[in-house]
């Protein structure tokens, strides 16, 4: 069973809880785990809109929390997309790789979970796959939940109207899946 002390979430808007009426899947996870009175603390370091460039600039803040478990959901803000209104914000695949080579080791805890991003249709699928494969390869020491693969069939009812964030049902789905992972 997982030793529950401090769980830290790190990533962008999906981690932050964007578009969820209850504050996101981490808030839901905290509520579920606190019903067992076995967890001391959940810290959410999700910041909407962040690319790995911004995440790298704030990753050192993780150390002060001394998490026993980290959950990382980066999102897809780094990836170039069709009709992009902010191309300068995106990172090349090489910069993404370099950033993750520095980020992942700093987030690795006694137990670490990396969740791949769900597919966003305004990003070319081949590009999305390249970024996700790069992240999976670099998440050494992490349990990996390949939500990207799930998104091809399971997530159609879990997205908000903007198709870029989860709705309440999507955040609950993530919470439920994480509860199963943490119980192993």
Would you write up a description of this structure?
With 184 residues, the chain is of the alpha/beta class. Helices cover 39% and strands 14% of the residues. The chain has helices at 13-16, 25-34, 52-58, 93-107, 125-138, 147-151, 168-183, and strands spanning 6-11, 41-46, 69-73, 111-115, 143-145. It has a five-stranded parallel sheet. The longest helix has 16 residues, at 168-183. The chain starts with 5 loop residues before the first strand and ends with a helix.
Give the topology, please:
Elements: E1 6-11, H1 13-16, H2 25-34, E2 41-46, H3 52-58, E3 69-73, H4 93-107, E4 111-115, H5 125-138, E5 143-145, H6 147-151, H7 168-183
Parallel strand pairs: 1-2, 1-3, 3-4, 4-5
Helix pairs in contact: 2-7, 3-4, 4-5
Short description:
The protein is an alpha/beta fold. The protein contains seven helices and five strands; from the N terminus they run βααβαβαβαβαα.
Helix content: 25-40%
Examine the coordinates and then state which fold CATH places here, giving the name of the CATH topology. Answer: Rossmann fold
Question: Sheet with the most strands?
Answer: 5 strands, parallel
In percent terms, what proportion of residues is strand?
A: 5-15%
CATH architectural arrangement? 3-Layer(aba) Sandwich
CATH class identity: Alpha Beta
What is the number of helices? 7
Alpha carbon gyration radius: 15 Å
| Category by helix and strand content | alpha/beta
Pattern of helices and strands: EHHEHEHEHEHH
How far from one another are the termini?
Answer: 6 Å
């Amino acid at each position: 069973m997982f030793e529950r002390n401090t769980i830290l979430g790190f990533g962008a808007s999906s981690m932050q809880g964007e578009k969820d009426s209850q504050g996101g899947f981490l808030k839901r996870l905290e509520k579920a785990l606190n019903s067992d009175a076995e967890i001391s603390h959940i810290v959410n370091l999700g910041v909407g809109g962040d690319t790995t460039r911004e995440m790298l600039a704030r990753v050192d803040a993780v150390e002060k929390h001394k998490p026993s478990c980290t959950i990382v959901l980066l999102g897809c803000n780094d990836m170039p997309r069709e009709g992009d209104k902010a191309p300068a914000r995106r990172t090349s695949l090489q910069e993404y790789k370099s950033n993750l080579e520095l980020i992942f080791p700093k987030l690795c805890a006694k137990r670490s979970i990396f969740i791949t991003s769900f597919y966003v249709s305004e990003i070319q699928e081949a590009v999305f796959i390249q970024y996700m494969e790069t992240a999976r390869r670099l998440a050494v020491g992490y349990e990996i939940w390949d939500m990207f693969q799930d998104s091809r069939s399971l997530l159609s009812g879990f997205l908000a109207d903007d198709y870029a964030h989860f709705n309440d049902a999507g955040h609950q789905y993530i919470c439920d899946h994480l509860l199963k992972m943490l119980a192993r």
